[in-house]
Amino acid sequence: MDVPVGTAVFTEKKWKGLKKAEIICLDYSEDMLDKAKDRLSYYDNISFVQGDVGKLPFEDASFDTVLSMNGFHAFPDKKKAFLETNRVLKKGGSFIGCFYIKGKSKRTDWLVRRILTKKGWFTPPFLTEESLRNALHKLYSEVECHIDGSMAFFKCKK
Ligand SMILES: C[S@@+](CC[C@H](N)C(=O)[O-])C[C@H]1O[C@@H](n2cnc3c(N)ncnc32)[C@H](O)[C@@H]1O
What spatial distance separates the first Cα and last Cα of the chain, rounded to whole Å? Predict the structure, then answer.
């Protein structure tokens, strides 16, 4: 599952190359999902679901991999998003992603607070490196987390 897929601008090439995988692209916004469909709807193994990451319409342990790029800084209920992405993963499955964390760059934090949040693209409260590491370690047996500037990149195993 790619959640949130957005317009699929970053994942289009990857998903097109995985012809044997069953891929579900989920986003809350119909507009974003329509753009993702324009890029990927020729592929029978890729499907699109409008939904909320905080209430995923899937059974427990349905996915081998959940990818979440640039989503958690936009999600309004981050705790539910962590729980739901974990719930739908199979044991041994991978949770991979990246997003903005607060407290690493004054300039970026200013931009996020004064512009991106006001535009509605980012939604506080934001995670810090510490709160992200705590959240991942509570839910996953293996956690790799790398910080580059204000971005956190992680790969976890359930
Ligand atoms: C910055 S985009 C990231 C999209 C894509 N992964 C990327 O990196 O380009 C953030 C997306 O989160 C979606 N979003 C926000 N809240 C959501 C929610 N509760 N459930 C699912 N998607 C949500 C927005 O609609 C938007 O498409």
Answer: 15
